[in-house]
Amino acid sequence: MSITFQRKNILTYLISTFSLFVVGIILLSIVFPALIISNFGIHSNNLESFEVGNNSLAILLSNLLVLAFVIAYYKNKLPLQLHKLISSIPKKQLSKKITLIVIFLILLPYTILTVPELFIDEASQAPDYEIFLAAKEIFPFGKTTFTEATEHCVTRNFSKCKNYSIYRKYCTINCHIFLHK
Description:
extended
């Protein structure tokens, strides 16, 4: 074997391993949403680490179905017509025109369905939106550390919040800005 082929092979294995690691962490955080936060979070909390998330059943079932399908394909347990259809997919070369049409057909419904979210008036939907606006005006409170800023957020605004999604957005913005200073 040539040296360049061995290097490409090693690089492929490294990229694949890293990708599987990242996908594993993502799947773990979907199945057990509180696991990472409760074990690696900055502040102590009383979350149950292994509480199963809402989407865990759907994710696990879909992954098991795909895995079973792949195993059946490689063991030649699928019907012959389906096996031939799947085998012919990598051999086909799609033209740029067809590729662009497919991408357009995928993105068009997504765009149509999500554009209305840009025009949502949060002030009419969230009764505590004024608190968010006032906090945004006095940001960053003159605090220098993440802990001081978080304590300020919690003591000043948490008791007044009725819509916690605004509060989460607000504290997330603070956390990101203070952590990246």
